DNA sequence: CGTCAACATAGAGATATGTCGAAACAAGAG
DNA sequence: CTCTTGTTTCGACATATCTCTATGTTGACG
């Protein structure tokens, strides 16, 4: 946790007003909708949660994710791809296996967008 | 802003661990996915933003929302219904007009779910 | 009562999404 | 090189979603 990260978060808040601040323009609405749509599926939410619960910097192999669902492997791969295209996770291949991790800044950006003024006060 | 509200928010945080805390069970994943899916459409995001930017306790008449889009009135009505079914907004008819307002606790619950431990530290 | 205005609901059509099995691709082992 | 295992891509299908027009409902006003 660094001062730098604090600044980044502050910047996000400054550049990206929350849902209550002002009416969304078309472009930003489309951009945000794409990310929320990625979260709008129970399988993807569980996948994200499984990866995120590894902690900051943690990684999960696909081979650990697949058996957690009653779905075919291609289906899991497809959902992981959507999460990645939404900018919520990223991955890297190391040898035979592919490892996924979350991009916390993406999640935090969404959280800041959703926060209402009242809740912001409550935390402060 | 009351002490009561602070307690409610605290409760939410306690009862509903964030995405990074622990793997989501099926039931909660389905429940959350329904809400995120409602946010996964640019029209609905803009609608929510238009309503939310009225401030806490603020209301917007449908007759103000419809002209803000290049869509038919039934389509707007449909999207408002989905937002309402997701528990993000509520409405009331007063005479000829129907007024919508946001339910801030729903938004805050989502924000808490998305917040990563690092961001939570940054705010604290 | 009749009419008008504001919203909601119903039904239909085009497109998007979730899922699968089959096949392609990548990398290590023999 | 060939075989096996882990993963992604492809093609197809059923279902869901978004949008429209047409119709229904609710309440205000003569």
Short description:
Chains A, B: This is Helix-turn-helix transcriptional regulator. Chain A is mostly helical and about 120 residues long.
Low-confidence region ranges of chain A: 1-13
Q: Count of DSSP helices of chain A?
A: 7
Termini Cα gap of chain A? 18 Å
The number of domains of chain A is 1
What is the CATH topology classification name of chain A? Arc Repressor Mutant, subunit A
The strand count of chain A comes to 3
* Strand neighbour order, sheet with most strands of chain A: 1-3-2
Reported CATH architecture of chain A: Orthogonal Bundle
- Rg over CA atoms of chain A: 16 Å
Fraction of helical residues of chain A:
55-70%
Structural class of chain A: mainly alpha
In round numbers, the mean pLDDT of chain A is 88
β-strand percent of chain A reads 5-15%
CATH class of chain A: Mainly Alpha
How many strands, which pairing sense, and closed or not: the largest β-sheet of chain A?
3 strands, antiparallel
Overview of the molecule:
The structure is a homodimer. By secondary structure, chain A is mainly alpha-helical. Chain A has one domain (about 5-124): Winged helix-like DNA-binding domain superfamily/Winged helix DNA-binding domain (Arc Repressor Mutant, subunit A), CATH 1.10.10.10. Helices cover about 60% and strands about 10% of the residues of chain A. Chain A is built from seven helices and three strands. Chain A has helices at about 5-15, 25-40, 40-50, 60-65, 75-85, 105-115, 115-124, and strands at about 60, 90-95, 95-100. Mean pLDDT of chain A is about 90; it is low at about 1-15. Chains A and B meet through helix 1, helix 2, helix 3, helix 6 and helix 7 of A and helix 1, helix 2, helix 3, helix 6 and helix 7 of B. The structure holds a DNA duplex (30 and 30 nucleotides). Chains A, B: Keywords: DNA-binding, Transcription, Transcription regulation. Chains A, B: GO terms for molecular function: DNA binding; DNA-binding transcription factor activity.
């Amino acid at each position: 946790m660094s001062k730098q990260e604090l600044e980044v978060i502050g910047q996000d808040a400054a550049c990206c007003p929350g849902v209550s601040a002002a009416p969304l323009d078309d472009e930003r609405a489309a951009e945000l909708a794409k990310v929320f749509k990625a979260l709008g599926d129970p399988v993807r939410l569980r996948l994200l949660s499984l990866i995120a619960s590894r902690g900051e910097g943690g990684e999960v192999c696909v081979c650990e994710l697949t058996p957690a669902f009653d779905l075919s492997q291609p289906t899991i791969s497809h959902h992981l791809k959507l999460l990645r295209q939404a900018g919520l996770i990223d991955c890297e291949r190391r040898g035979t296996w592919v490892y996924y991790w979350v991009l916390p800044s993406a999640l935090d950006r969404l959280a800041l967008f959703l926060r209402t003024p009242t809740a912001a006060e409550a935390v402060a």
